[in-house]
Amino acid sequence: MRGFLVKRLLQSLILLLIVSVIGFAVLNLFPGGPLAQYALDSSMTQDDLMRLKEQLGLNRPLYVQYLDWAFRLVQGDWGHSFRDRAPVLSVIGRHLWATFLLMGSSTILAVGVGAWIGIRSATHRGSLFDHAATIGAMVALSIPTFWFGLVGIYVFTLRLGWLPAGNMYTVGDESILDYLHHLIMPSAVLALVHVAIWSRYMRSATLDVIHQDFVNTARAKGLSERRILMKHVVGNALLPMITLAGIQLPSVLTGALVTETVFTWPGMGRLFLDSLGYSDYPVVMGLLMFSAVLVIVSNLLADITVALVDPRIRLA
Amino acid sequence: MTDTINARPGYSRRDALRLTGAGGLATFVAPHVLGGAAFAQGNAKAPKGRVVVGVSQEPTTFNPLMVHGETDDAVIFSVFDALIRIDAQGVMQPNLAVEVPSQANGGISKDGLVWRVRLRDDVKWHDGTPFTAEDVKYTLELIVSPKFRAWRTGGHSLVRDLKVVSPTEITWRMESAFAPYLAFLAETFIVPRHILEKEADPNITAFGQAPIGTGAFKWGQRVPGDRIELVANPNYFGQGPFISQLVFKYVPDMTVLYTQFQSGDVDLVDQAYITADHYEEAKKLPGRTVDLEAASGIEGIFFNLERPQFKELAVRKALYAALDRKSIIDSIYYGVGTVTETFMPPQSYYHDRTLPVQDFNLNAARKILDDAGWVPGADGIRAKGGVRLSFANSTTSGNHLREQMQQYMQQIFREIGVEMTISNLPPAVMWGDFWQKSQFDSGLSGVTFLIASDPDVTNRFASTSSLAKGGQGSNVMQYSNPKVDELLKQGRSTFDQEERRKIYAQVQRIIREELPFLPVFAYTVILGRKSKLDGFKFNPNVRTASWNAAAWSWKG
After folding, report:
1. Is residue A143 part of a domain?
2. What is the DSSP letter of B90?
3. In a domain, A80, yes or no
4. What pLDDT is attached to residue A280?
5. What is the Cα–Cα distance from B243 to B49, expressed in whole angstroms?
6. What ipTM does this complex have?
7. Touching check for A168 and chain B: CB below 8 Å?
8. In a 3-state reduction of DSSP, which class is residue B255?
9. Of A39, A157, A261, which has the smallest distance from its Cβ to B431's Cβ?
10. Is A1 among the domain residues?
11. Residues of B in Cβ contact (< 8 Å) with A273
12. Contact residues, chain A, for B265 at CB < 8 Å
């Protein structure tokens, strides 16, 4: 186990280095840059722009800028946002909670509903329910979230008046109930796609297990169908889901770009879009490193969890 | 919606006390009626209610001297004050100064070199410290400090010998007479010395995230990615504020912003306003006032005058005559936009209304080209002296309205024997060197010609302002006319507004005759607000619709 961890750690460091170099290069090679937005502003003269470029250190060679950034990062200094000049980690921290709330609630919804649909489809293979679930999943996967969001706002806000049009809370209210009220629509819209994915995976995983020998054995022992399903089928079908969850976990925190935009949700996805739009290099690089670390950690967690749950697997 | 919710806490305590004071009579009268009346008489200034302003970009810069965009102005105008302000008619009004310095009142010397500003003595920073001339001195010095990332140093870099005469009077000398400086001062918000001078690095400060100003509203809090909350400053020296809370809500998507206006979550749609495709529907919304307001940008076709096709005035004239601007506005821009003949915004004090109006006339366009000797070749495209009348037009790719306009131009120019190709680029490329260093044939762009609403357009039309010709500035057309250069020089050193109006009328006339660019329309914004919002006024001379939030109140 220790050998495995050391090996993984070394791999991760190399991976982070590669990610940061590529990220930095791509970001800087794209034409424009942090000052491009002011180039059309008639009140900023060429002199002003040149002066700002120098003050921000953007006129240095690219490799110097990278090394400077990397050395500071190693020392724990993630830099300051170009936009509001706040430390990058605190910028990320301030958006984390909103995304966590949205993605957490929608994931719970998606996993719960998705697993139920998947198992039921598998056990009732070829039934009306199975066909409806298949078609439903295809529809949910092929229609953009943006559209679902706008339709939701049209129906539930403008027509019925049941739910708010977006935002995380009503300014001035901010009670738990108010949060929940605002959470319903974005969470459900976001869950829609994930339900589709989870139900498909769960269905095929259950089908794999359902015809295995040990299930037949269990049945031969005279166990009830319900017990077979709960104890033997579901337990085993959920195993590959742990790996899937590991892959999905980073997306929980990096956020849902589209949903956060439609519902004006102040989370990480929108922070990323905005920072990219303004070429706020320190924040974009910060987000990149942050999500790279998340990917590594959650994959590691998934591997360890699978090893702990499944005695057949050994980490070395 | 939000106003009614907030009316409750706004009135309860104080009015309850009043009711008790009014004695027995009060018990027979519906409390809210009396409450409202007593409120209005007793203390006209007690602010009440909340206004939520929707903006499509997130305000992030609150130090008004640092580089910032239009959306930050929305917040800055409420938290800070400048020495003077520009009103909706384009007239300067005193703000922190007691009078607008002029040559008439002795605030500016006859040669325009010595300035003296008298300040109010009743102004306090939000933390209670008195505002004095030392703050003004500190502000003007900080802007030109080499380690400070100032927004713009134009004009400020000419200031010398800043002297605090008394806490309410400051003087300085200008390196050269520069009339636009008055307008620049209207966008130079004064920052507190006693807070900023303690900072080691003026660029990264706590002040930048929790500013302290002298304005009608005090800093409340910022929820990043979501909103900024300001609260009423009860000790404001000016009129107002009449609302207790001012919220700037960031809604990144324009369609969603409109939806939130529709649902009532947003009381007023500020920058980037309501999109034209929603105008017809927005007009019919109950309880909302939706107006068209002339803004300061001009959409135009810009020529690279060094290209052989465009060197001859006849060509530019013919293209102008062939441009059916009315149809472009009505059929492409949903009828939102105003036909104009000049770079000067329609609402500007300096706008010349007597300029000749160009009619759409294809035959006249053909005749102009025929007379100038441009003869159609075998392919129908005109040529003269080996130059084919063919050019490319460029703009930001993905801007659908502009792309439709280009297709329209392409067709209509073909009718008079001119070939136009479309070559669009992503924004960062389009507005980079390609545009600034005049590497295009012709470009389609929305341009605000004025800086801080001052009529000086040296940056755009002076022969020394072309980067391609080794100058400094944004004269991307490479336009050059000694007469215009002379007039612009004169305008910069003339302080009398009437005199300046005459000078810039001449500039407008010459530009109209020589057509270095073709004005397609003056931008019009669609401003939506709740009808119950009182005291709102649009000001085309500033970059935000929330410039006078101090005057806002809720009706009823």
Report:
1. yes
2. S
3. no
4. 86
5. 5
6. 0.73
7. yes
8. helix
9. A39
10. no
11. 252
12. 164-167
